[in-house]
## 1
Amino acid sequence: MTRLAFLSGSLVCLFSLLYFSIGAPSSAQAQVLEKLEIVTATGIHAFSVEVMRTRAELEHGLMERRFLPADRGMLFDFKTERPVMMWMKNTYLPLDMVFIAKTGKVVGIAENTEPFSEKIIPSGAPAYGVLEVNAGTAARIGLKPGDIVHQALFGN
C-alpha cells in the first residue's frame, strides 16, 4: 500500500467517524429553508426557517439537535389558530419560543426554555404557529408581543 493510499483511507475513516459521531442529518435537518422576517422596534430581523407541517415533524421539532445557527429557526404550522402547548423533551438547546397569530402578530414569548424539561409551555393566547430560535434571540432583537412576523405561512 502506498503512503497516499493509506492517507486517503485514513481520511475516509476519520470523516466517517466524525460524520457518525456528530450525526447524519435527519430528514428535518435536510429540509428546504424558508425566509422569515420579524419586525420589532429595533428593525427587521431576517431568519431562515424549517417549517414543520406534518404530525411527525410537529412532534419531533428540534429534538436531539445540538446546534442551531444564529440566523436559523424552526416554525411550527398548526394549521388552525388555537391555544397550543409546547415542551422541551429531548431538546438539547435552550430556546426562545415565539407564539404567532394567523395575522403574523406575536401573541406570546417564552424565553430561555429549559433543555430536556417536560414542563408544559402554554401559548397564553390562540396561536397559528410557533417559531423556535436560540435562547437570547428575543431579547437581542427586542421582540415584544404585538410585533409582526412576515412569512408565507401567515399570508403577509
Note: Confidence is low (pLDDT under 50) at residues 1-29.
## 2
Amino acid sequence: MGDEKSAPTRVEQQRLRALPSVSSLIQHPAIAPYAREVGARSLTRLAQLVLEEARQAILAGRATGDVVAVLQRKLQKLSQPRLRSVINATGVIIHTNLGRAPVSDEAARAMAEVAGRYTALEIELESGRRGGRMSELSQLLSLLTGAEAGLVVNNNAAAVLLVLSTFCAGRAVLVSRSQAVEIGGGFRIPDVLRQSGARLVEVGTTNRTYVRDYSEAISDDTAAILSVHWSNFRIIGFTVQPELGELAELAHARGLLLIEDLGSGALLDTAAYGLAHEPTVQEAIAAGADLVCFSGDKLLGGPQAGIIVGRRELIDQVERHPLARALRADKTALAGTAVTLRHYLRGEAIEKIPVWRMIATPLAALEARCQTWQSALRDLVETEIVATDATVGGGSLPGETLPSRALALGAEAIAEVVPGLTVEELARRLRTGQPPVVGRVEADRLLLDARTVLPEQDEALVEALRRSLAIS
C-alpha cells in the first residue's frame, strides 16, 4: 500500500484547476498563429503534452512556469529548422560540432540540383541500360590517387567496417597496440573489428611496434594487417612505428592484405602551408596498401562520405558485399564528392574548397579583414585585434596550429555598451541570433577568429554583433 499515490492536496487541486483547457490554450493569441506552421492536429497534440507535463510537475510539487510561454517556445523550435547556416568564428577549421567541412559553392549547387530533380544515378543515358553509380567517382579517384578503383559510402567508419566485413570476418587482423584507438563519437577500432566479425590481435607495445612484432603474430588464421593513422592524438618521445611500405612488403610476402585507415583524406601536402606533413592517400597507395579508407568531409573538403580506394578486384568484392547497400552514400553526397574531386583534378582546390582556402589564407589578409570589422563597429564598441592560433580540427593534425587574427571584445568594453552584459551572455546572444555566430571565450574576452569566417560572411558577422549589442 505504501506505493500508492496520495490524493492531490487542496493547493495542488487549485493549481490543477487553474490550468487552461486544451482548446483555450491553442486559441490563445500567442499560440493560434502556429496552427498554420505545424498544423491543427500537431498543435493540439503538443498542447496536450505541455499540459500533461504541467500536471505532473504540480503533483510532484514543482513549479510549472507559464504554460503559454512553454508551448510557444516549443512551437518556435519546431517551426524553425534546427540545422541552420552558422558563422564559424571559433578558429577550428574542420569543426565537427558545426558540420565539419563546408563544401565549395559548386559542390553545394550540384548537391542541390540532384536533390531537387531526377538524376541519372544508375542508368547509362546513351544505352538506356542500368549502370553503376560509382563509375564516375571510381575514375576520378583512380586519377587522383593512383589506385585502380574507388568506392564511396556514407562515412569513413562505414568504409572501415565494410572492408573488414568483406575480407576479415571470422579471421584475425593484426593492429599495433598504439593504433587500437578511439576517435570522436566513441568510434573505437576494436569495436569496429568486433562488429565486422574479425578478431583483433594487438601487436607491439603502446609506444614501440616493430615489423617483427607483426611477423611473429601472423598465423594461418590471419587475414590482414590494419594500419590506423593517429588522427586525433600523437605519441612522442621513445617511439617506433614501421613504415607503411615495410608492412606492405611483409603482408604481401605472407599472402595478407594491408588495409590503411587514413582518416583525414589529405590529397595535398599540408607541409606546404606551414603545418606538419599529413600522410596523403597517394602516398599510402604508392607504399603498397591494398585498400585505403578515408573521410570525404575532413581535409578532402567535400560532403560527408567514406571513401575506399585500392586494387580493382578488391573494390569489386567490397561493392558486392551485402553491407555495401546499407552503407552506400546517397545521390547528393555522390554529386558533391564528384565536384570536390574535380577541383583537385583541375588544380583549383586551394581557390575553391573552403577548408584549403582557410588553411592557405595569408596572415596579412586575416589582419585586414579584422581591421574592416573593427572599423565597422568603431561607433558602437571598443575592440582589439589580437594574435591567436587556429587549428585544423576534425581529428586532423593534432597539436598543429596556424597563426591567425581575431577580433576581441573585452568584458569592460561590452559592459560600456550594455550595462550588465557579460562576455558569456554576448556569446550566447550571438549563438542564438540570426545568423548564429559561434566564437570562443578566453580570458574574459570574446574572440572572433577571422581564419574560419568565410569572406562572404563578413558583413553578416558585423551586423550580428551590432544586433547582439543593441539588445537591452
Note: The domain at 87-95+357-470 is CATH 3.90.1150.180 (Aspartate Aminotransferase, domain 1).
